[in-house]
Amino acid sequence: MEDYCEVLGSLGKKKAIVVGDVMVDSYMIGSVERISPEAPVPVVSISDRKYRLGGAANVALNMAAFGTEVYLCSVIGNDAEGNIFRNLLHENNLPDNGIVSSENRKTTTKTRVISGGQHLIRIDDEDSSQISDELKEIVMFRISQIIDNEHIDVLVFEDYDKGLLSPDIIHRITALCRQNKIKVAVDPKKRNFDAYKNVTLFKPNLKEFCEGRKIDRCTDIETLKNHAKEFMINNNIDMLMITMSENGIFICNKKNSAHIPAEIRDIVDVSGAGDTVISVASLLLTATDNIHDIALVANLAGGIVCEKVGVVPIDVNTLKEKIAAIAQNH
Q1: Maximum Cα–Cα distance for the chain, whole Å?
Q2: pLDDT digits (tens, 9 = 90+) for 278-301
Q3: In angstroms, rounded to a whole number, what is the distance separating the alpha carbons of residues 198 and 213?
Q4: Does residue 241 carry a pLDDT above 80?
Q5: Is the pLDDT of residue 96 over 60?
Q6: In angstroms, how far is CA 152 from the centroid of its own chain?
Q7: Interacting residues of 45 by C-beta distance below 8 A, sequence separation 6+
Q8: Is 35 among the domain residues?
Q9: pLDDT value at residue 267
Q10: How many independent structural domains does the chain possess?
């Protein structure tokens, strides 16, 4: 672990592509002082409104926090929220040459109403139907262009089941990456769970893994290890990482496995933690093949963002301090 601050520093020389469903995270922040006379619900007086990059865009933002050059590829609507999304990319110094705007889509927007630091309600405005074949071809062209023009180290599939990714486009992108010796990491969802084959890292959470495998949910590590090995062999996956919430992270490759317990933390908000874990793990794939260290650092990073309200990217300096503290204690 002593070398890991140096490893994290090296990630600034890497280049990555994130392909997945993007969204605008909208926050309406206010106070509750009375109950509505119309229904037994609180009345929130809004004092502030904030917008942040969400979904696959939050993964890109987390990777960029390490100094990595990140290209985001997705489809948004040609609407007001789409304009907000592009402005957020520019504000965060992320390129938008992989973003396709469509008249026939809406930009996914998740609005969270917050009062006194408490998350009261979330409102989702989205279209999760599959994108058209025409849009698929445009997305493929954008990805191919970036791969042709840049030396990409890793590509991340960030699947939120919002219609961008389907088995055909997943297989085409994965094949393109293999041709160009680009590592592929996956944060899956249920719809395309079995479509990700021949990838470097597959990172479901425990619920997603058990549903995808059609098995009872279990936290017994030996049982999990057996299911994991079988799944990896059947799908030609090099490394499988399963996030287990309060039970930490399980990780394995074809030779070894490790279980990293969760740290005791003051959890404020778990939203965005999965984005941070896949971001950090994907980048570490480009620098090390030590599964224990990949899981340990990713687990630390995911825990750090849980101490913040809302979806926020990782604070790299805090992560380095946590790693240094662990190294010192060992």
Answers
A1: 63
A2: 999 999 999 888 898 888 888 888
A3: 17
A4: yes
A5: yes
A6: 18
A7: 30, 31, 32, 33
A8: no
A9: 40
A10: 1
CA pair distance 32, 34, nearest whole angstrom: 6
State residue 47's pLDDT score: 96
The reply to whether 261 falls in a domain is yes
Q: How far apart are CA 316 and CA 295, in angstroms?
A: 16
242-284 pLDDT, tens digit each: 988 878 889 999 899 999 887 654 444 344 477 888 999 999 9
* Closest C-alpha to 157, from 198, 96, 123, 127: 198
Neighbours of 217 (CB within 10 A): 9
Query: Distance (Å, rounded) from C-alpha 245 to C-alpha 242?
Result: 9
Read off the tokens for 106: 């809406």
Helix (H) or strand (E) holding 46: strand 42-55
As a whole number, the mean pLDDT across the chain is 88
Rounded Cα distance, 267 and 100, in Å: 36
Catalytic status, residue 133: no
Integer Cα distance of 18 and 57 in angstroms: 8
CATH number at residue 72: 3.40.1190.20
What DSSP line would sit under 117-148, residue for residue? TEEEEEEEE---SPPPHHHHHHHHHHHHHHHH
3-state secondary structure of 98: coil
The two three-digit tokens of residue 35, written as one number? 């109950």
In a domain, 33, yes or no: no
With respect to residue 39, please indicate whether it lies within any of the assigned structural domains: no
Contacts of 122 (CB under 8 A, 6+ apart): 110, 111, 112, 113
- Closest C-alpha to 296, from 323, 316, 276, 324: 323
Helix (H) or strand (E) holding 224: helix 221-235
Phi, psi of 324 (to 5 degrees): -60, -40
Query: 10 Å Cβ neighbour count for 143?
Result: 22
Q: CA 88 to CA 326: how far, in whole Å?
A: 35
Catalytic: which of 266, 275, 289, 315?
A: 275
Q: Which residues contact 1 (CB under 8 A, 6 or more apart)?
A: 293, 296, 323, 326, 327, 330
CB 60 within 8 A of CB 18: yes
What's the whole-number mean pLDDT along residues 129-133? 96
Give the residue numbers spanning the domain of 290. Answer: 4-23+52-329
